[in-house]
Fold each of these.
Amino acid sequence: MVGSMEWSYRSAEDVVGAMRAGEVTSVELTEEAIARIERDDKAINAICVPDFTRAREAARQADRARAAGRDAPLLGIPITVKDSYNVAGLPTTWGMPAFADFIPAEDALAVARVRAAGAVILGKTNVPLMLGDLQSFNAIYGTTNNPWDHGRSPGGSSGGSAAALAAGFGALSLGSDIGGSLRTPAHFCGVYSHKPSFGLVATRGHVPPPAPALPSERDLGVIGPMARTARDLTLLLDVMAGADPLTLGIAFDLALPPARHDRLADFRVLILQDHPVIPTGTAVRSALHRVADALTAGGARVEWQSSLLPDLDSAATLYSQLLFATLAAGFPADRYEQLRAQAAELGPHDHGRDAARLRGGVFSHREWLEANDRRELLRREWRRLFTDFDIVITPITPTPAFPHDHNPNIAERRLDIDGTPHPYLDQLTWAGVATVPGLPATAIPTGPSPEGLPVGVQLIAPMFEDRTGLRLAELLERSIGGFTPPN
């Protein structure tokens, strides 16, 4: 699949420098990206809504601006945007056939920010129905395939974005995450992503149709950058971040602190490879040890356990409850009433994971507030841990990318972990470690599995210390390598 196109796999940072030096124009970059999409995306199906006519015009405008002496962080860079963001004039569907023709009139705030920074939007990337899967397929646009193995998932729900990056369709992409939807696709496709601290990036306009684009934050969910290098994550995050000017938050906009350390040798790292809910597969364990070896060789302090670690089992239950409370709030009335009836039938001694999800989906306001208090206690425990450590490294999911599984009954699906089947939704467990307390988490590639599939891990940093995780990602990229194109 990889061709001889000169710029397709260059970093955004490199391409910006090349444009400033007059080595390439935005029009040339954009035409190359479009040609690559037209050549290769028939097999991958990452770009669900091309926007090539407007992209070409934006590229011409970027070149004129640069010729006039103007500059901007993303000026002339071809990028893609996840379907779930409103882009004026393009469909926003969230994979729902009923809204195949829903076209918003305004850009999401993050889209407006990347446009203002000079980005050239090539089009929108595919997602699963209602963003509710670790795969990316729907009845409108079909199935997105993993560029490394077309029979496997690219992840979800930002699977189209990760596949586009791995295939060389633009240098950057905008994704989102509530159940690992930035991190899992990065892990499956061998690219980078960053789940920002909760509230760092305003999400207005990242909303299911036909809901209005309001200046309010959905619990647990964030939007964030995806890229092929760690430094490119920072480049895009700096453009996306900031409070919504329609809220009082603009008066309290957050300036992120610098990274705690600049050298690998100064980092104090806790690595976790075991979780009480689900086992970790051999390929992912090997990836964690590769990272540990690189950290140790660089002089970092590495530990594999700590008495300060919050209880992972109770935190996973809390995540299940809060996640399904958020998801069910968007269900149609009849579906929600079905949930209520199912929850009422649960036995008083049923404390399994499925029961926790079901009960969470129909929480009363009182019950949600009680759960939120438990989250605040969990956050306090994480703050204590981060007095002794700078970063916690964990799996993202227990395995590399799995084969496509479109069984409509998600409860019947199973994930094969080293030959043993496990409940499909239990894959969300590691993502929840960072999501429920709202911590920033950076997904990095660590090298291939024995079968040649990408494997990633996540670097979890203290709240609003996103730059600490991003800096360690840069340092690890130098020591263990980063993205490599599929072959």
Amino acid sequence: MSINWASVYTGPIGQLLGDLSPTTFMQLMTQGSQAQLSQLNNTKSQDGTLISGWTTLQSDAQAVNGALFTLNNPTTFQQMSATSSNSSILTATDSSAQQGSYSLYVDQLAQAEIDQGQPPTAITSNSTALGFSGSFQIYTGTQPTSSITISSSDTLQQIASAINAANSGVTASTEQLANGNWTLAIQGNTTGAANNIHYVATSPTGTSSPLYQLGLWNTSLSTPTYFSGEVLQSAQNAAVNFGSVASTSNEITSSTNTFTNLVPGLTVNTNSQGSAATITVGPNTSGMTKSIQQFVTNWNQWVSDTQNLAEAGTVTATGTGSGSNYTYQSNKNQVIKSGQPQGVLNQVQTIMGGIIGSGAYQSLSDIGLSFNGSGKLVLNQSTLTNALGQNPSAVSTLFQNLYSALTPTNSVGALQAFYSGSQSIAGQAIAYDTTQQTQTNTQITMLKNQLTAAEQQAVIQYGQWVNQIAHYSQESSLVSAMFNQNSGSNSTGG
């Protein structure tokens, strides 16, 4: 809280105390330390910026190596894909599928059973108590549900809910028929002939069973079965055969519409009965291109970040020959003053741009990869697609040779020497700057403690100074009073 010294002391003393407030006094006493603290904070910020810059370039180089490692793996270029001449037959495949063409015909699709109850007594509402009770089970294949128990107060909708809650492998719903009456519909949750539905009355049996009242069980037969016409759709397997026309003699079945047993490594999904298609299995050039594009993207990111963080500036030329003019533009974003990042980048680019191997493709330019003026990779999609379509194995060999050149077995290559481990160029730079930042933090902490002590001392000194001024003020007032008294006496005596 500031003090209005002018109300306490008049004249120059009040003005002096007002001009030199406690805050101003403290700032004067600590201004040297405050300037030092500001400098240390700037140093800490610069250290953090350096750490961030080196970490970015380290991550970029590691990403380039990771993408190159993927391209070094032969399986990357052994990917196969399948296409179908009929969109009703969709296909997927893995690398174990054999290249070739296969003709298929879909004889039938897999389906789940659908039943509809035929109650002996009309049910006119799905929300009115039905008046019968008991328990029963529903089987899908050989798997029974837990017992489903209903009471005489249950409605048709509540019975459907009880069936669904029993985890019976079926889904029950209520349906209103054309004549206005209601019934249960039971649909299997799983396709395939082995998952047919049947019903078993547990208590009571005969015409008193809820199954009979719901029209799901004919008690006149010795074993659980259905009323005629009750099965709206039978459970069945999907079936296909090799060829372009229907043939049941050599068909292959599946409980679902997905086949994994037609051709090793090939998955076929059937969507339309009576469909014929030719499935062609060949190199997955799209997947291979995606891996190469990732390498290009990672490389270009490394180039961009290096130019942004570590280049001092750029020289631009205009004109040609003797009329050429050169201008230099400094890089205001430069963080790293070392020339090592750009040097390593140039070294790696030289290897990538040279003759890498002796196979069908000897350089990256042979498969459509070239460097532009800024050192970034440019991809010629047409050239790459042709190379992958004609000889994916040779493209694989090219990248294996490149990986060996950049990461030699018996020594540390330029790429790994830059990013890998604490002894790498980036690793050592990050460690050094981190140590510097830690030391600066320690200095900041010590200086802050000193400032706190100095501020406390300044408060004490300010108080002492005010007391001294007050003392001088009192003495000045006493002298003035005595002078005025003596001056008055002399005037009277004259």
Amino acid sequence: MSYSDVYVIGAGPSGLTASYLLTKQGISTTVIEADPVHVGGISRTANYKDFLFDIGGHRFFSKSKEVVDLWKEILPQDFISRPRLSRIYYDGKYYSYPLKAFEALGNLGVIESSMCVLSFMYKQAFPNEKPETFHDWVANQFGERLFSIFFKTYTEKVWGMSCDEISADWAAQRIKGLDLWTAMSSALRNSIAPKGYKDGTKANDGQVIKTLIDSFEYPRKGPGMMWDAAARKTREQGGTIHMGTRLMGMSFDKASGIWTITAHKEDGEVLSFTAKHVISSAPIRELVHSFTEKPACVASAEKLRYRDFITVAVVVDKPDLFPDNWIYIHEPSVKVGRIQNFRSWSPEMVPNEKLACLGLEYFCFEGDGLWTASDEELIALAKKELAIIGLATEDECIDGCVVRQKKAYPVYDDGYKQNVETIRAELAANYPTLHLVGRNGMHKYNNQDHAMMTSMLTVKNIVAGEMLYDIWNVNEDAEYHESGDSGAEEALKSVRMVPRRVGTAA
């Protein structure tokens, strides 16, 4: 049985951020990761015959100077600057995102555009005062007409449920600071801004809205470079990472304040560990089930749901088919939700300049028809849908592979918030040295930089020996991230807790 000051479950962005920062300060740290080969979780880089691709697309942009500085510290020489270009495909036409007003009006036509404006104005005059669903929230911001055109189909593909079943929390978190007036003013400003303007779109308070950024940085061979480097540096600083190792059980001795954890490797070997602190980025449902003595909140954990994700990477015998990083597919006639163009992320992702490599993304639930389809069936579906959209013929698609990602997205259904609060309260009250971080660890749809910040602040709490920062406020009501030289301090002020006992829920 080996002892560490801190035991980390999961070697994704949040887990490796924690392990890197802890070992940098000389704190003994052990990490377990279920994947036998890859670190980085959904932020890893896949490799198929030297074609590199990202699982979902991860732009490296943050308004937190502290996060940006950490990226450059871990990976100091391999970032390249990339233009951000995304479009929406709807009814056989492409719409720039952010919105370009005259393009949108031209594509929609005078009658449809007029109806959209009237719909928006009606919602401004008569909004839903207490939006509870995704539908309510988006209609308030954009009007019913634009909701049905640009949000409904894609969102229901992603989540596999009606927009009336999805919590407004998800919309408020993912489309924060953006409304129709902001998008329209962005379109006007970008049309008259001096060439080379790269500051992004700003809300009324001057903050850059991440949804509308026009450039970002990216590791030249994909985000896996970042997390491979973080894992290597964790080991160089004295940390241990056990790959191909899954959590089995854990228990906490209140008298000694020590955790005992068991995990098993792929060959069946059982490993035992003890630690003062546990940092978990594992899905909450799995974590709660691992307790030797099941907490009462296991019933709430069982109700949490996850959306799974399939990338079908298709090699096309044509040069680059479009300049976008990705295209959102709002077309209901196909199942694909988004199409990535990997060379637009980095020229080094595609080894042959005469070929294109596209990633067709399908959202599903583990065990449903898409998830259980064979790789051959999924590649055939991807080729067919590329032809339907008009990007390539089936004969031009000469190769492909499939990557499945379990629990890619925590589901924000109408009951998730109460279930998470119930779990959070019980764990905080009974296990003061258990720290939940990251997307699945907190059941929050965090971006990569948000996931990292939850671990950065957790490490500060552990080092201080008290709960200085409430990580549950990251990317919520208080904007933890600010740009500029004061960013690091601003990042801390908005999540700073009032003095309280370690482990007390906020």
